[in-house]
Here is the input.
Amino acid sequence: MKGHETGKGAMSNRVLRGGSWNNNANNARSANRNNNTPSNRNNNNGFRLASTRAPESGRVRLPGESDPVQPSSDPGVIRVKNRAAGCHEAFPDGGLEVAGGSTLRIPRQVSAANPAVQRVKPLRVRGRWAVGPLAALLLLLLHMPLSAQEGAPIRVGDLIGLLVEGVPANRILSITLQASCVEGGAEQVGLESLRAAGASPELLRAVERFACEARSPAEGPAPAGEALGVGFGDDQFALIPAGSFQMGSTNGGSDERPVHTVNITRAFRMQRTEVTQGQWREIMGSNPSSFSSCGDTCPVERVSWNDIQQFLTALNQRFPGRNYRLPTEAEWEYAARAGTTGDYGGTGVLDEMGWYRDNSGSRTHPVAGKQPNAWGLYDMHGNVFEWVQDWYSSSYYSVSPANDPPGPSSGSGRVLRGGSWFISAVGARSAYRFGTPSVRYSVFGFRLARTP
Here is the structure.
């Protein structure tokens, strides 16, 4: 029930809008209007609230700020009006107020459940002015210096995920400009992956401008506060966008040829690390690993393909509806490359990306101890080989369909990918593949996939 009378002057009835459970489609139209006496009660009449709030004069307040910033009287200074007080998202959502009082509003159309949204914080210009995303972009385009508040970074893979999910372009730009920096933003492969996912020129420029400083391999890549390899929540998975790539290589064996185009037609989620000993124990109650002394955050190994099927059954019973599975071979290589075309993903330098014969010390290592690729995946090269869903055939590439190849319909062995602590650099390439029956060995592990 709306608080206006049906016509000019004092009238006895009040307006009703919006239709009800008891009305037909005509009465539920946006323009349809009805009326009733103010005291009438009916089981199809209700209401909603509105509020008119007086603005704070001469002040700029962002969520979480206890000491609002006083704006300058300089007419050339950009002032920000925040309209997000009480909104459920973790970042400011207002508009850019320029001289003359006009306001550009940014629509609020992103889920607060998205982990990328929860990590961002507002930017400050020269440590003084708190600005909204359009203001920050304007300063970016004008090449004025920006410095971010201390806060968590965002990954290129997160931004690709938002693009794939259809989040509006200005919202993704807002999230990017409010993060402390963009992990992978300085890498060409990251920019190319964003471009392939449909990133706007403004987003690409912001990603490149606010790229995080590259970590040295010795630092270990896992961002502070992340508990990778623990539990099975969404934080353990990266959203991999749909796209196309060249599968195979001319640098390897005959089973890697012919190089052919593969189209991954739908996005999927890939576990950011190999399944760990702790994760296996949580579901199965035991630890089969040869390197059990390595600890709960080391990859589980000495598991067969058949063992993994039992694990998946138990995992999906524990968490119904999440549909955990193994990736297909095509999904695995697509995710490992993450837009690259060389032998190794990420930086392209194997020592920075994975543990293999020359640097492993003949043992496994905790997951996420090397650099991730552009989509936030760790240990795609080395540590342990990873079982995938497909049967193995040395000639399958000659008959593989272009769209979402499922692998051969039968075979004597399953495919393993990615190399291990025991293998040479050749076996750790993105395109390297081999097949074996379902056996247990200290170099065989796996990672999970899910279809959103």
Remarks:
- The longest strand covers residues 385-391.
- The radius of gyration is 27 Å.
- Residues 79-209 form one domain.
- Residues 2-10, 53-133, 141-150, 216-225 have pLDDT under 50 and may be disordered.
